[in-house]
C-alpha cells in the first residue's frame, strides 16, 4: 500500500463533501440530535445511518453478536467489506450504505467501477481492495484535520486509549442490517422496508447504547439522506433552500480550515508580539512576562480549587 489512512471527524459537512469528491450525487449527511423516529423522517428520503461510538478495545470477539444474528450469506450477496486497516472505518461505513444503495443513489463512475470490481470478492478481499484504493484513501485523507505533531498511521490503539468506531445501518433487500467491518458478517436485525426504517432502527440503537454506563454520552448519529436542497426546490420552500445553502457555505469554510495547521502562523504572530514589546523597552517586556506568569498561576490555583488538574 502506498500510504496510510488518517483519522477524520464524524461531521456532516466532512462526510457530505467527501462523498461528493468521490463522485456521489445528490446525497448529504444530517446529524441527528435525538433518537426519535420522527426526527429521522424529517430528514427526508433516508438511505441509512452512520453510528459513532466508543469501541471497547479489550473486548473479545464472539461467535454471536450481542444483538441480532450474523447473516453469512449476506456477506457475499451485498456489499460488505472487512475492516483491514486502522482509521478507515468512517469512510468504510458511509460506503457500506452507499454501495448497497446503487440504483437508488447515483454513486458515480469511480465507486461503481470499484463495486463491480469487488463484487465476486469475499469480504476480507473487499476490505483489502478498499484499503488499497488510492482514490478513496486520498479523498479520505484530504478531509483529515491537519496536525504537525501526530502521524495517526504509526501507532496502534491500546486498551488505555479512547478508540471510536463507525458502523452503518441500512435497509437492504427489505432487511435491517448492521454493517460493521470488524465483525465477520452483516448483522441481521429483522425484516425492514425502507419506509419502516425510521421506526425499526431506533430500538436497535437504543439497545446498543443501553449496553454502556449511563455516564457515557459520547455517541454521534448521522443520517444518510437525499440532498435537502432538492426537496426544498421541488416544493418551492425558498427559506429552507436558503438555510441549506448557508449550511453548505459553512461546511466549505470548516473543511478549508481542516486542511491547514496554524502553528507557523501562531509562531510568527508571537514573534511579532515579542518584537513589539522589546521595541517599547526591556522593562515593558519584563513586566509583560511577569504579568503573564501571574495570570497563569492564578488560573492553575482556580482549577485546583475546582478539583481540575492543571497541565504539567
Structure description:
By secondary structure, the chain is α+β, with helices and mostly antiparallel strands. It folds into two domains: about 10-260, Ubiquitin C-terminal Hydrolase UCH-l3 (3-Layer(aba) Sandwich); about 265-305. It is about 45% helix and about 15% strand. Strands 1-7-2-4-5-6-3 form a seven-stranded antiparallel sheet, with helices on both faces. Helix 1 packs across helix 10 (about 240-260), helix 9 (about 230-235) runs antiparallel to helix 10 (about 240-260) and helix 11 crosses helix 12 (about 280-305). The two termini are about 40 Å apart. It catalyses: Thiol-dependent hydrolysis of ester, thioester, amide, peptide and isopeptide bonds formed by the C-terminal Gly of ubiquitin (a 76-residue protein attached to proteins as an intracellular targeting signal). GO terms for molecular function: cysteine-type deubiquitinase activity. This is Ubiquitin carboxyl-terminal hydrolase.
Amino acid at each position: 500500500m502506498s500510504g496510510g489512512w488518517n483519522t477524520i471527524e464524524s461531521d456532516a459537512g466532512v462526510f457530505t463533501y467527501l462523498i461528493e469528491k468521490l463522485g456521489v450525487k445528490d446525497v448529504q449527511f444530517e446529524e441527528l440530535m435525538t433518537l426519535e423516529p420522527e426526527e429521522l423522517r424529517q430528514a427526508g428520503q433516508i438511505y441509512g445511518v452512520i453510528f459513532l461510538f466508543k469501541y471497547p478495545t479489550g473486548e473479545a470477539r464472539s461467535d454471536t453478536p450481542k444483538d441480532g444474528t450474523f447473516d453469512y450469506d449476506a456477506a457475499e450477496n451485498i456489499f460488505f467489506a472487512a475492516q483491514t486497516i486502522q482509521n478507515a472505518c468512517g469512510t468504510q461505513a458511509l460506503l457500506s450504505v452507499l454501495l448497497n444503495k446503487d440504483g437508488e443513489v447515483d454513486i458515480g463512475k469511480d465507486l461503481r467501477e470499484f463495486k463491480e470490481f469487488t463484487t465476486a470478492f469475499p469480504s476480507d478481499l473487499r476490505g483489502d481492495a478498499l484499503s488499497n484504493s488510492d482514490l478513496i484513501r486520498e479523498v479520505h485523507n484530504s478531509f483529515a484535520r491537519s496536525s504537525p505533531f501526530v502521524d495517526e498511521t504509526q501507532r496502534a490503539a491500546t486498551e488505555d486509549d479512547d478508540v471510536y468506531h463507525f458502523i452503518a445501518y441500512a435497509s437492504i433487500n427489505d432487511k435491517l442490517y448492521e454493517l460493521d467491518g470488524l465483525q465477520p458478517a452483516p448483522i441481521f436485525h429483522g425484516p425492514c422496508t425502507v419506509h419502516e426504517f425510521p421506526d425499526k432502527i431506533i430500538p436497535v440503537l437504543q439497545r446498543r447504547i443501553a449496553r454502556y454506563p449511563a455516564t457515557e454520552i459520547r455517541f454521534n448519529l448521522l443520517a444518510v439522506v437525499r440532498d435537502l436542497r432538492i426537496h426544498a426546490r421541488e416544493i418551492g420552500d425558498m427559506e429552507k433552500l436558503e438555510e441549506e445553502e448557508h449550511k453548505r457555505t459553512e461546511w466549505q469554510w470548516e473543511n478549508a480550515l481542516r486542511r491547514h495547521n496554524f502553528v507557523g502562523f501562531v509562531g510568527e504572530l508571537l514573534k511579532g508580539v515579542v518584537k513589539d514589546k522589546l521595541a517599547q523597552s526591556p522593562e515593558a517586556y519584563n513586566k509583560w512576562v511577569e504579568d503573564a506568569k501571574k495570570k497563569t498561576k492564578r488560573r492553575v490555583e482556580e482549577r485546583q480549587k475546582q478539583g481540575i488538574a492543571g497541565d504539567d
